[in-house]
Amino acid sequence: MTTAFYWDERCFWHGGGNYALTLPVGGFVQPMNAGLPESPETKRRLKNLAEVSGLWAEMRTGSAPGARWEELARVHPESYLTRFKSASDAGGGELGLRTPFSPGGFEIAALSAGLAVEALRAVLKGEVANAYALSRPPGHHCLPDWPNGFCLMANIAIAIETARAEGRAARVAVVDWDVHHGNGTEAIFLNNPEVLTISLHQEANYPLDTGQADVRGEGAAKGSNINVPLPPGLGHKGYIAAMERIVLPALHRFQPDVIVVACGYDASAFDPLGRMLATTETFRQMTAQVKAAAQELCAGRLVLVHEGGYSEVHVPFCGHAVLEELTGSAIRAPDPMARTLEARQPNARFDAFAEAWIDELALYFDR
């Protein structure tokens, strides 16, 4: 079986207002030429690089229907969906924090969720070995009734609840390696013991007030939420250590039916919204780690859903490395910045500090 890659040109047409990084322009902030940092170009350039390299031909590629109202309503209340649809039909706007959208934004967000729904469905039906959903707008910050952080609908949560409602999976593990805390996914599943949520994120990046290690789940779901706040400048070795010592043991304890990755690339060393020094090899090796875990634990069932990542230069190479690993292809798109990033990795003293940090967290989560 092959790897499926779900995408749709209409997702690239999602538009926001004029921002300077995460701040709306006006007042003390001068307008920027590029506008919202969550732009279509990082995603389009990833897709284009895969086409040019030849990797595209080795995958099953295509679009999917937008998520239906009843699928969206498994996560988002009718009041939110109605408010979003009305604002979208009226010309766009902003319903939460840093979530601007243009006319038709509701339909594009539903399409973004639909790509994740279909990717998970295809893997669980056994039609493909694994899948990647190039979803845009992203989803892991979106709460049931309040969008934030560029996220308008909770794409992964909608896909999971649809799969569970269809009886295709009972226990689902989410591994979120976006540089920002997956607060929306956490909130949606915080009291659900059948969904394990793990977030590796830069400590106190976004949101400022979530992502603490002591948030472990509620009631019967105690222990089913794992937050791994990481120090800025962690680098490649630190990410791999966190995967080895925290994420993989948690997956083995949980024994999921399928693993879903919230695949953000904003831990990249060149990202304007993160400070983590991850490389293309970081993303390649993390993908190899979850792929091996999926093969051991759940017959290889693995889905990656695109989240953040704001460097138009570097995201395509990071994403291509992930797709190389997913497909098992021999095709490569060498990272032209690799040598520079290798030289900028943390020194041995910082690595020792980071490993001690990770070991302390690992002991905490293993209680």
Descriptive notes:
It is globular, with a radius of gyration of 19 Å. It has 11 helices and 12 strands. The mean pLDDT is 95. The chain has helices at residues 41-53, 69-72, 78-89, 105-124, 155-165, 183-189, 235-254, 280-297, 315-327, 338-343, 348-365; strands at residues 3-6, 19-20, 23-24, 59-62, 93-94, 100-101, 130-133, 172-176, 195-202, 225-230, 258-263, 302-306. The protein is α/β, with parallel strands linked by helices and 367 residues long. The strands form 3 sheets. Strands 4-1-7-12-11-8-9-10 form an 8-stranded parallel beta sheet, sandwiched between helices. It has one domain (3-365): Histone deacetylase domain (Arginase, Chain A, 3-Layer(aba) Sandwich), CATH 3.40.800.20.
Mean pLDDT: 95
Helical content stands at 25-40%
Radius of gyration from the alpha-carbon trace, in angstroms: 19 Å
Secondary-structure arrangement, i.e. CATH architecture: 3-Layer(aba) Sandwich
CATH topology: Arginase, Chain A
CATH superfamily name? Histone deacetylase domain
User: Would you list the SSEs in sequence order as H and E?
Assistant: EEEHEHHEEHEHEHEEHEHEHHH
SSE layout and pairing:
Layout lengths: L2 E4 L12 E2 L2 E2 L16 H13 L5 E4 L6 H4 L5 H12 L3 E2 L5 E2 L3 H20 L5 E4 L21 H11 L6 E5 L6 H7 L5 E8 L22 E6 L4 H20 L3 E6 L16 H18 L4 E5 L8 H13 L10 H6 L4 H18 L2
Parallel strand pairs: 1-4, 1-7, 7-12, 8-9, 8-11, 9-10, 11-12
Antiparallel strand pairs: 2-3, 5-6
Feature tags:
alpha/beta; Arginase, Chain A; eight-stranded parallel beta sheet; 14% strand
